[in-house]
Task: structure prediction
Amino acid sequence: MKQKTLGLVHTSATLVPVFGALCKELLPGVNVFNIADDSLVKGIIASGSLTAVIARRVASYLESAELAGADYIMVTCSSIGPAVEAGAKLIGVPVLRVDQPMAERAVATGRKIGVVATLRTTLEPTADLISRRAALAGKHIELTARLCEGAFEALMNGDAATHDAKVAAALKELSQQVDVIVLAQASMARVVDTLAAEDRRVPILASPRIAVEYLATVL
Result:
């Protein structure tokens, strides 16, 4: 049987080793290659939204991954989620948004769902995806969104401590109010490990491992 090939499309090169380790652990028999372009998310931040030009570029990366031999493609950035869904319709192999399996798990876990992000451009697509997956599942949910103002800028300026403190504060607050928390960005996952047990009273979901676990069931 031919070995399957997974194409990963990233908007940050820092995610290549993160997903590389997960794929090695969970998809040992699968060939994996990476396409990374951090100008995509920089363009979204600069314009304040996902533009038509960026959406076209995302579609071209999906096509490139298919032409490179991918049997399955996953895009690891939530900010370009709507462009991924649009571009997937033009591609002859399955395409997965990294946050879709996480959204489905959140909907299955509880009715009150919290979403935390450090970028508004990521918060809105993630919240929208959760709402749509809930509607598909026929579930009524209450969604509470939290934007950690200034956290992303702090991280970009090399101040990881301020970023982590802002994210931790949001997680502590939300854990008192919801059944499950969704991290809209994979970069926030490391903060969860720093929380005290009493501040982790509800499940806190991060997309990378959940997404690769899902791929293990379809590849």
